[in-house]
Design the sequence.
């Protein structure tokens, strides 16, 4: 097994697993990680500035309004404010014009590039983006940072970050040896969860209509390393006669605490082409053992 940092947590996955991250989101900015050389980064940033400088906004003005340099001992790059839009809203019986812009950043840290993108933002949010890119650190492969903050693909945004930033990121993993097996972990802070996993499970129409297709290994509460949650572990008989597994654990989140986010851990087997499930390559005992290793490893990342 090897450890992967996801948000403010660590999870262990099989050493041979290929793990990929989806873009993280912090305060409405999507953060994409780009593996490239210094020269490629310089070229991309020049191309973006040149393109925006010759583009027009919806009132036929120059789209690019501001370019701000970002530079400290850890981070270098630029922030762009562009594409202003005007939207008429009715308030108190009269029309009020609301203005929004796109605010993007292209920055580089520790040999890794990061693109922050967001549309339809209040222009005053520029200062917040400046702040969080200054808190960015590039993280090397398989490094587990010791500083407090939010982990994503090869990156860490140092605290302070509040729960109002709604930080979120997810990973997916699998191996060439077992292509039908998939692992995923998603974390999202500040969510207001309406129904818990067990409540959704109890109201599942598919299971009530086809009860014989589901065999429960465990359905109930489970606390993992101090984080309360709920667990549903099932073997599933698919409509085409194949046998699969669907395992899920979900935390009981607090929308007021970044250290109690919505956590969703899943392990599925029997995955084939869309709409074509296959037989699980793992027996019941094997998938239960693998789930035990992965789920029991989920813990908050220790920080200084």
Sequence:
């Amino acid at each position: 097994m090897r450890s992967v940092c996801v948000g403010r947590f660590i999870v262990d996955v099989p050493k041979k697993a290929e793990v990929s991250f989806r873009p993280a989101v912090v305060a409405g900015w999507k953060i994409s990680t780009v593996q490239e050389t210094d020269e490629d980064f310089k070229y991309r940033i020049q191309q973006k500035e040149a393109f925006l400088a010759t583009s027009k906004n919806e009132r036929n003005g120059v789209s690019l309004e501001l370019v701000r340099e970002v530079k400290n001992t850890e981070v270098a790059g630029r922030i762009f404010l562009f594409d202003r839009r005007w939207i008429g809203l009715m308030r108190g019986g009269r029309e009020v014009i609301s203005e929004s812009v796109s605010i993007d950043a292209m920055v580089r840290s520790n040999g890794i590039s990061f693109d922050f993108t967001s549309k339809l933002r209040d222009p005053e949010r520029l200062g917040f983006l400046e702040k969080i890119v200054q808190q960015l650190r590039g993280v090397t492969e398989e490094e587990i940072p010791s500083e407090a903050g939010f982990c994503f693909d090869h990156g860490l945004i140092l605290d302070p970050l509040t729960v109002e930033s709604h930080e979120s990121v997810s990973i997916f993993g699998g191996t060439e040896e077992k292509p039908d097996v998939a692992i995923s972990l998603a974390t999202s802070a500040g969510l207001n969860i309406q129904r818990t996993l067990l409540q959704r499970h109890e109201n599942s129409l598919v299971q009530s209509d086809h009860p014989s297709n589901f065999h429960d290994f465990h359905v109930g509460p489970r606390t993992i390393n101090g984080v309360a949650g709920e667990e549903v572990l099932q073997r599933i008989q698919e409509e085409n006669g194949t046998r699969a597994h669907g395992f899920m654990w979900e935390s009981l989140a607090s929308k007021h605490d970044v250290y109690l986010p919505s956590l969703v851990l899943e392990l599925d087997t029997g995955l084939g082409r869309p709409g074509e499930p296959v037989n699980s390559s793992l027996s019941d005992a094997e998938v239960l053992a693998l789930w035990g290793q992965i789920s029991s490893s989920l813990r908050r990342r220790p920080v200084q």
About this structure: The chain has two domains: 1-27+146-304, 28-134.
